Amino acid sequence: MCVTIFAGSRLDYEARYAAPRELPKDFGHTSKSEHDSRRAVMTAQEGDPMAVAMALDEAMNAGRLETALALFSDDAVVIFPSQPEPNRFAGKEQIRNWLQSDISEGIHVESGERRANGERVTWTGQISLAAWRERGIAPIEGQAEAIVRDGQIVSFMYAVSPESLARMQQASLS
Questions:
Q1: Is residue 160 in some structural domain?
Q2: Is 0.90 topped by the overall pTM?
Q3: How far is CA 64 from CA 11, 49, 67, 167, in A?
Q4: Percent above pLDDT 90 for the chain
Q5: What is the rounded distance in angstroms from the CA atom of residue 128 to the CA atom of residue 4?
Q6: Under 8 Å CB-to-CB from 50, ≥6 apart: which residues?
Q7: Which of 15, 42, 60, 98 has a C-alpha 20 to 30 A away from that of 21?
């Protein structure tokens, strides 16, 4: 699903997430994507964990910050175990900052091999940001897991594959 791998210094990384970035006023405003995102959220609100995970991808790809944020519970936790600290975002405000940063950087998500077992959904993901595409290291591959209760994500984790992590580390050295 959505992940931000940051190859800069810890101070740069912390500054990036300290406050949300302003999105252009017309960012992500297309009637078809708005309709598709709203349809995805309505389906997700029916409580199907698989639909919730798919709706998050759709909202991110459409640049719909509020739609994506609505899929998380108020006390949700997002963790990126293969990233430098801070790699944990808890609560709506921190999750909003993470989502807004990725959306403003032109995130594109492709997911596959989805599996649901009760409230747990796992899948493979390919994530790309504009900067990664420019540097030739996108997509970044990994494994995602979401725990969904009552139609909202309470826990989300994305672990970058060792191969993608090595590519990113190599790119940061050159």
A1: yes
A2: no
A3: 28, 20, 5, 29
A4: 60
A5: 9
A6: 114, 116, 121
A7: 42
